[in-house]
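Would you be willing to look carefully at the protein I have copied below?

:::
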Amino acid sequence: MNPDELLLIGYIAGGFGVRGQLKMKAVTDQPDHLKQHIRTVYLGASTPPERASSTAPPRAYRLRQVDEHKPGMLLLTLDGVTTRETADSLRRAEVFIHTRDALPLDEDEYYLHELYNLRVETTDGVEIGVVREVLETGAHEVLVVARPDQPDALIPMIRDIVHHLDPNNGRIVIRLIEGLL
């Protein structure tokens, strides 16, 4: 399976109970969609291109049940994971769904992984750099923009600054405000 077809939804925190249930720290804000519409999840590690040959691709598991343990923590029951030992062996695995199974995005929504490697430029067309990381602060995301021969810039993803988000053309256009860079 092509890694670009997978969407990260969480991380396995460990086993729960003795029958193989898994505790998943969710990074999705749509646990109800997972409960009602997802039948297959993929467990493994995301593979950066430079390590593609050294890491096995994520493995598919049939999702039998999803329960909310507490906010942000879900309990997964998967076919083939029936003991505490098997569940514990999956600790720290990343959990993915196929992108075709994800909820459609609204016009002004995006997936965080789509922001990586986008060019950041000003409304005047001046190139700032390239997004190398996205920080989730709770209030909003912050782009870490690598700039040639300069320290990284931190760009908050707020409407006052982000003028245009265009992942299809590989760019983000920002309004410069005093003190931003």
Remarks:
- The first helix runs from residue 31 to 37.
